[in-house]
Amino acid sequence: QFLMANKLDTAMWISRLFTVYCSALFVLPLLGLHEAASFYQRALLANALTSALRLHQRLPRFQLSRAFLAQALLEDSCHYLLYSLIFVNSYPVTMSIFPVLLFSLLHAATYTKKVLDARSSNSLPFLRNLLEKLNANQQNILKFIACNEIFLMPATVFMLFSGQGSLLQPFIYYRFLTLRYSSRRNPYCRTLFTELRIVVEHLITKPSCPVFIRRLCLSGISFISRLAPTVA
């Protein structure tokens, strides 16, 4: 009754579980490397479906207008719909599957707990214990996801020069990264950029750091700072 009363949430729960399943079989290619590539695509397509359903849930009725598009771009689900479209037809990159896997795992865990509560307050204590541990590590998982989002930017450039990526991919991914940086719901991308800057600045101020590396790092920090969008 609980599942039928919340059909859209249940559909997203099932698609997230399928995303976790496909992502796991890509990361751990138990069925062979050829099958792993197909599971990579399935995971991203399932994530795109989940993101589209969540976007439908969050937004009012569709309108072909700039205001509607601007509102859609504020939603994290829109960001990850774009993310899935960026990588679904690209060369499989293990780093790109971790955000999809971990976000799906976190959201699926939250809804699984609701399903267990609807069934019985004491049902499946072992599974409840696993869900609680996952929830306790949520902040670390979100930071890891943000780290993946950041380091995928140079990875897309590397893929371009190695012949495994398209010319448009780094530019579209840069747009995705600016949306993540400006996210209202998830500040971890901004936080990681700040933490990485502090760490690099600390390392290059040491006397043992060569001058040319210090200048190179400062130039890189200045360049990235200029590319960062303004956050209200």
TrEMBL record:
GO terms for cellular component: endoplasmic reticulum; membrane. InterPro entries: PER33/POM33_regulator, TMEM33/Pom33. It is a multi-pass membrane protein. It comes from the Eukaryota. It is found in: Membrane. The chain crosses the membrane at residues 12-33, 80-106, 150-174. GO terms for biological process: endoplasmic reticulum tubular network organization; membrane organization. Keywords: Membrane, Transmembrane, Transmembrane helix. The keyword Membrane applies. Belongs to the PER33/POM33 family. This is TMM33 protein. It comes from Phainopepla nitens (Phainopepla). The gene is Tmem33.
